[in-house]
Predict the 3D structure of the following.
Amino acid sequence: MNGTEDGPSPAQVDILLFRMGGVALGAVLQQIAYMALPPSDQEGQTGVVSLVDVLDFRGAVTSWLAPKALYLAGGAGQQAVVVDNPEEIVSIDLDEIQSLPDHLLTRAARGAFLGAFVTAAGAPVLLLDLYAIHGLAGQNRHNAGQQGKSS
Amino acid sequence: MLEETTGLLSKTRLYEWAKQRQERKKTVDVQEGKIKLVLFSLAGSLFAFPGQQVREVVEMATRSITLIPGSPEFVLGVINLRGVIESIVDPYALLGMDKPVDTSQRHAVMVRQGDFCTGVSVDAVEDVVDIPLSDLHTATALPLHQTLQDLVSASTQFRDRPVAILDTTQLLQRILQ
């Protein structure tokens, strides 16, 4: 499970690992164009969403160590998801990725994960779908706007 | 002659009679159907899953649960079980039960229905027993609130304590809703 500079073999995928609120998370490198510091005026930039605004961590994320914006590959404009403290890149076999059943997620978070895999140390890592996360943020904003109008 | 008229049995006949009674009882025991139950405790009350729907019991004391961000309140998270990622649900949250402050959940009962399998975190698995079908009763006698009553298929007794037998199909449907 070591990352390579030449990229993964066809049967493998490179994963950027990070940890938030004690949860081991991963993002597929193919979905990332580049990583940068989050813009200072993130609030005003609808293309930049924070992971904690999309997924409910049940209060487990209390502070940020080193926030980074993961800009989406192939995304129109500046679309990014802000995560905390990326640590390393690992290569895993595609067949190591296990699906997560739908019942594990609320409707507002459905589709947020590509699946999960188990590290050599035996810890589960949840694999985010950054495109879906970004889409869910837009959907949630839209729903909140609709609710605001109706109330 | 004496036996026929008075109903008295000689000592020899008495042994034969007792032996016959014993044989008859054995025959009844063999013929009577039984159900295997996995008994577990939640907040001091006894519950059970039918053994057929239980894949295994997992020791949780040394195992860590990974929270899934964005999951419903009743989902505790996932565990790595021999390389397979399995979900663990909290029956207190799922069944609308008050969770005692000092409770710790030592086991997870892995229940299955078709292809679907999930772990139900329980305070402790108490026993695995075979209960004669004749010892099963309706659940209406148990003092349960309505949410829980809907998920209980039958009741029985274990060491003079009432046991609520959960309907696995209903429970899993509630999880999947």
